[in-house]
Specification:
This protein is α+β, with helices and mostly antiparallel strands. It is built from 15 helices and 20 strands. It starts with a helix and ends in a 19-residue tail after the last helix.
Length: 490
Amino acid sequence: MIQDKSTDEAVARLLKLKNFEKAGVEPYPTKSTKTTDIKDVVKNFKTLEKQNKKIQLVGRIRTLRVHGGLAFITIEDESDQIQVALQKKNLKEYKLFTDNLDMGDFIEIKGPLFLTHKGEKTLNAMSIRLLSKALLPLPEKWHGLSDIETRFRQRYLDMLSNPSVRHTFQTRSTIIKSIRQFLDDKGFLEVDTPILQPLAGGATAKPFKTHHNALNTDLFLRIAPELYLKRLLVGGFEKVYEISRCFRNEGIDHSHNPEFTQVEFYWAYSEYEALMKMTENFLEYIGKQIKKDLKFEFDKKKFSLKAPYKRITFRDAILKTAKIDIDKVRDRDKLATLAKKAGVKVEKSDGYGKILDEIFKKHFREKVVEPTFVYDYPIELSPLAKKKPGSDTTVERFQLLVAGTELCNAFSELNDPLDQEARFKDQEKARKAGDEEAQQMDKDYVTALKHGMPPASGFGMGIDRLTMLLTNNHSVKEVIMFPTLRPEKE
C-alpha cells in the first residue's frame, strides 16, 4: 500500500504542534504586533543597519534551511520578503523552533539587520515567537496543476503562490477607488438599493428566485439597480450612483459569472451625447491610475484609452459587416432568414431584437479593437431608453466596445410613463412567447414615473469586465476572488 505523502505531512505537523504545546508555547496566541512592513525595511535597509536598531517583523515562513547551530528563514508579509538568521547562541529556544517550524507557519521575530557574505539583506533574530502553526503544507509546484479549477476552489493558495494573482486584485481595488473618486468629484451621491426585489427589472436577464418566510412571498435577487436608482431621480436627487453586486441565473463562461459587480449612475438634465463625452473622461481617469500612458493589451489586441473614441451607429455596424440594412428589414421572419444566411444561429423563441443582437455580436463586436461607441440602437433592444427625436424605431443608447468586449451600456432615460408602460407590455408578450429574459411589468415604477422624472441619462459598466480588460485576463474567474463553481464531487 502506498502511503499518501500529504497525510504523512499532516501527521508530522500535528506532532510538531504538540511539541510546541508541551514546551509551553501557545501555537495560536491572541496578541500579535506588526510595527512595520518588510518592504519598508528592505527599502531603508542601509539606514536601519547603521542605526543598529532592533527591528520587529511578522510574516509567513516561505523557506527554511537549518545548518547545525545556524538556520536561515525567508519570511513574507503582504509587501515583500526578507531573510532571517536564527543562531543557537542568540536563542535559547533555537532547537525547539528549528525542529518544529514548517513552511507556512507565521512567526514574529526581532533583532538588528546585517548583510551576509553574499550581500543578502538579513535580520539577525534575537527573539522569536510563534503566531500561527500551519497544519497543511503549501503547494510546491502550484503552476503545474493540471486541473485549473483547483486554483479557484482553493483561491487562498492561488493568491499565496502566484504574486500576479494578488496584483490583479490590487488593480481591481484601484479601479473601484478610481470609480468612486471620479464620481464623487463630479458631485454624484453614492447610494444603496435593494438586492432582494419583488420584481427583477432594469436589465434583460433571467433572475434568481427565493422565498421570504415571514412575508410568505417570493423575491428575486436583483439583476440590476436601475429602476430603483431612477426612483431616486423622481425623489429629488439629481446625481446618484451605486457600485452594486448583481445576480443573473444564466450560463457560466469566460465572461459571465452568476454574481458580478457593476457601477451604475444616473445624471438628471443630461442626455446620451453629453454622457459619451463624460464616459471618455471617466475611462481615461480610471486608466491613468493604472498606466499613465493609457496603453493596454487584451488577448493580443493593443488599444489605448486616450480619447476621443471612434463612433458608429448600430445600423451602420450591421450594414458594414453583415450586409443587412435593418432600416429596410422590420419583419422578424425575414430578419431570421437573413441572419441564418449570415451564419447566425436563430432559435424559434428569438424575437426581432434578440436576432439583431446575435447578428451584432457575431459580425461586429468581435472585430472591434480600439474603443468604439456604437450608438442609436433599435427600440427592441432597449425597452428603457428614450426614442430618438423623429424616429419610432431608434433610441438614444450607446455601448462602448473595446477589444471585442462590451464595456459599458448607457442611454437617455425614458421618462414618459405611458411610453414606458407600453414597452413593458411588449416585454410581457415576449415573456409569454418563451423569452425568459424579457422584462416584467413593474407597475410601481410606472407609478413613480407618473409623478414626474426629470430628463436624464444613465450609465452601467461591469467592473469585472473592466478589470479583465485592464489586467489582460481572459476569464472572469481570474478577476473575481471567489467565482461560482460547480459543486465538487465527493
